[in-house]
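Long-time lurker. I teach an intro course on protein structure, and each term I like to show students one example going from raw sequence to a predicted 3D structure in token notation. This year I'd like something fresh instead of my usual example. Would anyone be willing to generate the tokens for the chain below so I can use it in lecture? Attribution to the forum is fine with me.
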Amino acid sequence: MINKKKILVLNTSFNIGGAARIARTLFQSLNNRNDLECYFAYGRGEKPNENRTLKFAYLPEIYFQAFLTRITGLQGYGSWFSTKRLEKFIIKEKFDSIHT
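-- Reply from a regular --
Happy to contribute to a lecture. Here you go:
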């Protein structure tokens, strides 16, 4: 049995924007290979009809983060629970490579 490499593609969204389109194409192409097991983690947007996807951000945190950024200019300090959720997923799955 071949030991498949596990890869995580990480992006802000799955369906919205040019970067999402590139990341989604990479994810789908890698999943077509027999020697790789690819997952996609994203924070915003609707849940796609794709296997191996994880939406890690919570909507209230997205709004709180936007509010905090606009008021203080600080970025990345308002999404503690979403970050912990993504960290647990990464640790549990033991990825060989993570692409952002």
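Some talking points for your students: Residues 23 and 99 are 9 Å apart (CA to CA). The mean pLDDT is 87.
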